Amino acid sequence: MRVFSRLRRATPTPLLLFSAVAFGAAFFAVRFPDVPGASAGSYASSVLMALPALVALCTYLGPRRAAATVLAVSAFAYAIESVGVATGFPYGPFYYNEALGPKLFGLVPYLLPVTYVPLVIGAAAAAWVPNRLAPRILIAALLLVLIDGVLDPGATALGFWTWTEGGPYYGVPLVNSAGWLLSGAVSASLLLSIGRAHTSPPPGALDSAVLSLAFWTGVAVFSGLAFPALLGFVLFALSLARRSHLKAAVK
C-alpha cells in the first residue's frame, strides 16, 4: 500500500484523471462500437492521447530534432507494417479492417504513427539509463513487446485488424512478438540516434503510453481478456513508477 501511496503522490492528478477517463472510454468502445460518431471519437481520442508524448519530445529535443525523429519513426512504421500486411513478415499474416479509417496504398491506416510513435517515445523514456545506448534499445524493444501483449488482443477483439491464421495468444500468433521485438528495436534506435539526447527525458514522455495502457487495459477488462488485463495493470503501475523516477532525475 505504501508503494501505491508514493506513486499517487508522485503522479500528477490530471494524468490520473485522464487515465480513468481512458479506462472508462474502453467500456463504450467494447460495448457500443457502432454508435454514430464512434469512429470520429476514436480518431480524436488517439490524437489527444498522443499529444503529451509529442509535446514532451519537442520540449526535450527541440522542434527540429523532434520533428525529424517523429518523421523517421513514422516512415519506418509505415514501411514495416506495409511489408507485414503484404507478406506476413515479421508479424504473421494479418490485415487492417476499416475501423481505423483510410489506408496508405490500401494497406496501412494513415492513423498508424499517431498511435505507434508515442508508444516508442514512452518505451524509450522508460528505458533511460545514462550513457548506455544498447541496453536502452533492448529494454525499450522488450517494453514494446509487453505493451503489445495488452494492445493486440484488445484490438483484435474490437476488429481493428484480423489475423488470418489466428494464434494461441487470444487469436494472436506468437511470431507477432518477435516482429514487435524487431520493429521496436529499430524504432527505438531511430529515436535515440536521431535525438542524440544524453540527459534524462522529461516525465511527460511517458504520459501517452500511460494513457494508452489505461485504455487498452480497460478494453481487456471489458472484453474478458484476463491475462492482458493483468499485464496491463502491471505495466500501468510500472510506467507510473518509472515516470516518478524520471521526475526525480530531472530536478
Task: Give a short synopsis of this structure.
With 251 residues, the protein is mainly alpha-helical. The chain is built from nine helices and four strands; from the N terminus they run ααααβββααβααα.
Structural notes for this entry:
This protein is mostly helical. It has one domain. It has nine helices and four strands, in the order H-H-H-H-E-E-E-H-H-E-H-H-H. The strands form two sheets. A two-stranded antiparallel sheet has the order 1-4. Strands 2-3 form a two-stranded antiparallel sheet. A hairpin with a 3-residue loop joins strand 2 and strand 3. The longest helix has 26 residues. The chain is globular, with a radius of gyration of 17 Å. The protein starts with a helix and ends with a helix.
Number of strands: 4
The N- to C-terminal Cα distance equals 26 Å
Order of helices and strands: HHHHEEEHHEHHH
The neighbouring-strand order within the major sheet is 1-4
Mean pLDDT: 92
How would a crystallographer describe the biggest sheet? Answer: 2 strands, antiparallel
Cα gyration radius (Å): 17 Å
Report the β-strand fraction as a percent range. Answer: under 5%
**Residue share in helix:** over 70%
What overall geometry do the principal axes of the alpha carbons give? globular
Instruction: Determine the structural class based on helices, strands and strand pairing.
Output: mainly alpha
Put simply, the count of helices is: 9
User: Into how many domains do the coordinates divide?
Assistant: 1
Low-confidence stretches: none
